[in-house]
Structure formats: C-alpha cells, structure tokens
Amino acid sequence: MPEEWSLCGLSVRPVSLWHSIALEQTGNAFMTGELSSMDDVASLMLFVTRDFADGRRLMTDQARRSDLIEALCKKLKRIEFGEIRQDVEHYIEDCMRGPDEWHSTPDPRPVGAPYQWILVATLCDHYGYSFESAWNESYAVARSAYSAHAEASGHAKVCTEREQWYIEHLDQFATEGTREVDLKDKSTWQPSQN
C-alpha cells in the first residue's frame, strides 16, 4: 500500500482505520457507496490529508471543519465533477480492499464495537502497534492482518465468496453429484434444480 496518493491534485494518505470511522461518523456518502455532493469529496479529502491526532482535533471543531470543506470545494470546482468522482471511487476501492469475507467459526456472535475498533485491537494485541499507530494504519493492511491472524489462530476461516458459497451448499452437491461450473459466472454456482 503506497504511503501517499495523488487525489484530484492533492497529496493524501491511504484510507486509514481512523479515516474510515471518522467518515462514517460524519455521514460521508463514500462510506455508504454513494457520492452525493462536492461536500462529500471535500470532507473525505480533508480527513485523508490528516493523521489520527490531527483528525481528532478536526472532529471536535465543527466550525473549522466547515470552513476547510468550503475552501476545498472552491479549489475542486476547477475540475469536472465526473473526473473527481472517478478519481475518488478508484482511491476508495484501492484503499478499502481486503479479503472478500469476514467469517467466524463455529458460532459467530455479533459485537457492539465498530469494526474499526476490532481491527485496532488486533493490531495492538497481536502485532505490537501502539494505539495511535494502529488508527493510522491503512484499512487494507489492517484488514489483511486481522484476517491472517484469525485464520492462523483457527478463530476464523477466511475464504472467497465462491468458496463460502460452496461450503454453504456442499450438502446439495453431495446429493446431486458433480457438474461443470464456470467460476467466473455466478449463475453457474447454483446446484441444478433436478
């Protein structure tokens, strides 16, 4: 994961655990998969140019955050919105990647903590990170570290979407026998309906 990205002409950090929770808590549309306004772009860029300590200060000063978002919006108006949207979508996609699934075995339980806190705890407890450095770690690295630790310790089986589907439908294949499946075509994943 690169330590620095160029996003709409600005130098930014990869999306960290801190960035992801701050953007979720401020209702940024990028965390919901929607891009609703230039304010969402500016808000995202405002956070991803800061680390955990600077971002926490920004979270507590709504007036300063609003002023900075307004200033960023003025700078971004020089770029076509479609181009901005494409840049930001690629950035988010690259920075938020990780293993396909979160799997627990044998008995998954819901937790009340945001997933970012679980990733921070994993980095601190099993990889020696300090609290602040864990929050500054990129989401992709933290997510991969969590999955690697969970699978290595036997607490989870991390697998792809296809593998999970086969595990969940193994009994149907056992009673029907085998047939050819194109792994790239999800429509062939289903057991035949004989």
Question: What can be said about this structure in brief?
Answer:
55% of the residues lie in helices and 3% in strands. It is mainly alpha-helical.
Word description of this protein:
The longest helix has 15 residues. The radius of gyration is 20 Å and the shape is globular. The chain contains 10 helices and 2 strands, in the order ββαααααααααα. The protein is mainly alpha-helical. The model has no long low-confidence stretch (mean pLDDT 81). It starts with a strand and ends in an 18-residue tail after the last helix. The chain has a two-stranded antiparallel ribbon. Among the domains are: 91 residues, no CATH class; 34 residues, no CATH class.
Task: Produce the secondary structure layout.
Blueprint: E1 5-7, E2 10-12, H1 17-25, H2 38-48, H3 52-60, H4 62-76, H5 81-95, H6 115-127, H7 131-136, H8 139-152, H9 161-168, H10 170-176
Antiparallel strand pairs: 1-2
Helix pairs in contact: 1-6, 2-4, 6-8
The residue fraction in helices comes out at: 55-70%
Helical region count? 10
What overall form do the CA principal axes indicate?
globular
Intertermini distance: 47 Å
- Radius of gyration over all CA atoms, rounded: 20 Å
Average pLDDT score: 81
Strand content: under 5%
Structural class: mainly alpha
Unreliable spans: none
Largest sheet: 2 strands, antiparallel
How are the strands ordered across the major sheet?
Answer: 1-2
Kindly list the characteristics that best describe this protein.
194 residues, 3% strand, globular
